[in-house]
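Worked Example 4.2. Consider the chain below.
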Amino acid sequence: MYIIDKLQKLYEIEGISQIDGELAYYLLTHLKEMKSMTLQKCIQDTGISKASIHRFYSKAKFPSFKDLTKEIYREYHLLENKNFEMLPTNLPFENTLDVSHIQSLAKHMINAS
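Applying the procedure from the previous section yields the following structure tokens:
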């Protein structure tokens, strides 16, 4: 499962009433900006504390906010350009690859821009 999918599920479960859900929503709605996103901009835009953001990316097993945003941008860029052949073949897919879900997510991201 990709980080973008995980953010979507987190938002669906928690909504914006919980800090993690609010942060997931923010990241999902700023996918194009991930390449240049900084921790300070995220704090400024969301009002979420540095400590809460640190807990968020630490729970996701990223050593830094920059590493998280870099991975989100990489996935977004692959999906946006429909470079499915460039996806790593060693990713742990579930029993079947739901291509329609990936295409739907890509369309949603493109339409959200």
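The helical segments are 3-14, 19-29, 39-46, 50-59, 65-80, 99-112. The first helix runs from residue 3 to 14. Compare this with Example 4.1 before moving on.
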